[in-house]
């Protein structure tokens, strides 16, 4: 149970180095090939980004040599942007960073949100200015009995199988006598050799699901959130922009997300 083809988006931003380091470490852990896709827009080759943008291929291949990971390098078409030009359909997992307002116009439009919507492939989204650290040791699943949550759990199986601890966070869980929903999730994952703890949050109307998740005990030691991209619109906004500043400041964990 592992990812065999991982794709990382590359650009001239200061976040590129940590994103690339994480991509190599994940590919090495799963014995995967890593595809690097240059998604710089034409404007990236001017000004302060220029040197980093021009050296992406050299940087990528130097990292591959150091890590021993098999790689391939692609350049997205800067004039005809579409899913085919991002090569996302040919991977098991994508790696990107949250949109940064400072990168507007310097990264091809559609990365990462529109790629996620069209690719049919899960994506790990790293926070802006993320400091490198372990990902996937302590995992929290944002669970609901929905198609989005079910899809992302199955997409995350290779990471869940290697995790030291997995917790399912259930917001306002079904109130039947046996708590069948979360217990059946536990049994399903156990059939795959994955043990989970369960953290239930009763809905009192004070907090939205995304706010309850960030307030929960489950996230205290977590290093990765697994969540369906569009289960809650506020989660999508927090991940890709448009959310209030206070909630965005809380968004400091990588997220594995599917659409």
From TrEMBL:
Matching InterPro entries: Universal_stress_UspA
Name under which the protein is recorded: Universal stress protein
Domain of life: Bacteria
Family affiliation: Belongs to the universal stress protein A family.
Signal sequence, start to end: none
């Amino acid at each position: 149970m592992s990812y065999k083809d991982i794709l990382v988006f590359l650009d001239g931003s200061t976040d590129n180095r940590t994103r690339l380091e994480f991509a190599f470490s994940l590919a090495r852990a799963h014995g995967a090939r890593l595809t690097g896709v240059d998604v710089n827009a034409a404007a990236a080759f001017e000004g302060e980004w220029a040197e980093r943008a021009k050296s992406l291929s050299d940087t990528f291949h130097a990292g591959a040599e150091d890590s021993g990971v098999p790689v391939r390098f692609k350049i997205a078409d800067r004039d005809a942007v579409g899913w085919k030009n991002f090569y996302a359909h040919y991977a098991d997992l994508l790696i990107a960073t949250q949109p940064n307002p400072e990168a507007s116009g310097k990264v091809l439009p559609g990365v990462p949100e529109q790629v996620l919507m069209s690719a049919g492939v899960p994506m790990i989204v790293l926070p802006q200015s993320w400091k490198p650290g372990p990902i996937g040791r302590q995992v929290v699943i944002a669970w609901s009995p929905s198609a989005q949550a079910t899809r992302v759990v199955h997409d995350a199986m290779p990471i869940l199988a290697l995790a030291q601890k997995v917790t399912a966070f259930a917001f306002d869980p079904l109130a039947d006598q046996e708590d069948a929903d979360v217990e059946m999730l536990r049994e399903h994952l156990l059939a795959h050799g994955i043990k989970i703890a369960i953290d239930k949050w009763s809905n009192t109307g004070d907090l939205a699901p995304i706010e309850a998740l960030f307030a929960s005990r489950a996230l205290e030691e977590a290093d990765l959130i697994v969540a369906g991209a569009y289960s809650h619109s506020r989660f999508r906004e927090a991940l890709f922009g448009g959310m209030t500043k206070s909630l965005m400041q809380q968004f400091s964990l990588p997220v594995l997300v599917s659409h």
